[in-house]
Design goal:
Layout lengths: L1 H42 L5 H5 L2 E2 L4 E2 L2 H32 L4 H14 L3 H15 L6 H25 L3 H9 L4 H30 L2 H4 L21 H11 L3 H37 L2
Antiparallel strand pairs: 1-2
Helix pairs in contact: 1-11, 3-6, 3-8, 4-6, 5-6, 6-8, 7-8, 8-11, 10-11
Length: 290
């Protein structure tokens, strides 16, 4: 009898836990749906080809956001090109070559700590090092380098985890066939871990596209009449443009639909980048049968 009561109690607690998880998940989904509905209700009316491909005019109360779209895309892709090779190289060293010494532990601890540093601190660092110290000025390049540092810890962590998921037997088999450690890493381990590495790069790409504080101090401009022609030019960006429209504009009621429209475009841009990357990841995984 006592055993039956214990089993009933455990079952009740299990179902209570499951119900709590489902309730939390539904609450999150409801909040996201409500947010998207509110954005769509306020911002869909301004979405048009002129809004996407035009330049701001009349004190940003009319026109489009093409310079901000262009600037966000360029600085995000450049930051990814800088962060991805460095992050993957660091992860390969930590997982395949470094062993379990003190230096490895300190490096992993530093990566974990850097992942939690506020983005505004990275902005101050970029201002001191890239803008002033390396004489890049307020530019796309300085902002991209700052965003690369911001996303580097997450790229390292996810790439290292992807490398760790590759079975040890694959490494041992390659070494047994006479391959060197580098040949094993380059030809066997990295291709097997590439889907997971791409996931980390996607997460870094998404975070970089939505950041405001780092680029605020290193190169973003309130308004530019022309698209940037070189990496040393200032640029407009969707997150900063949205911030200006929402909090700093002299006519907030007039530009509120434009702010919601900008937010929708930013979400769609991040979503599109994620879809492209995950599609490439799925195709590569299917091709390699991993």
């Amino acid at each position: 009898m006592e055993k039956a009561r214990t089993m009933i109690g455990r079952t009740l607690w299990m179902w209570l836990g499951i119900a709590s998880l489902i309730a939390c998940a539904l609450a999150v989904v409801a909040f996201i749906v409500l947010l998207l509905f509110d954005m769509a209700e306020e911002g869909v009316s301004v979405l048009s080809w002129e809004f996407i491909a035009g330049f701001p005019r009349q004190g940003m109360t009319q026109g489009g956001i093409w310079p901000a779209i262009f600037g966000t895309t360029v600085v995000t892709l450049l930051a990814t090109l800088l962060a991805a090779p460095l992050g993957v190289a660091c992860a390969v060293w930590l997982e395949e070559y470094a062993g379990e010494g003190l230096l490895t532990q300190l490096t992993r601890a530093a990566v974990r700590n850097l992942a939690g540093v506020p983005s505004i601190v990275y902005g101050l660092f970029g201002l001191a090092i890239f803008v002033e110290g390396m004489r890049m000025g307020a530019s796309i390049l300085a902002s991209a380098c700052t965003l690369a540092l911001l996303t580097l810890p997450s790229v390292i962590a996810t790439a290292e985890e992807a490398l760790r998921q590759v079975p040890r037997a694959m490494r041992e088999g390659a070494l047994a066939l006479g391959a060197t450690r580098w040949e094993t890493t380059y030809s066997v381990v990295l291709p097997a871990a590439l889907p997971g590495i791409l996931t980390g790069v996607v997460l870094a790409l998404s975070r970089a596209a939505g950041e405001t504080a780092p680029i605020l101090l290193t190169g973003v401009a309130f308004y530019t009449r022309y698209l940037p022609a070189s990496p040393f030019d200032e640029f407009m960006a969707l997150p900063y443009h949205l911030y200006i429209l929402s909090t700093q504009h002299h006519a907030p009621d007039l530009v509120r639909p434009l702010a919601y429209g900008t937010a929708i475009v930013l979400l769609l841009l991040v979503f599109l980048l994620n879809v492209i990357a995950f599609t490439l990841r799925a195709r590569y995984r299917q091709k390699k049968h991993y």
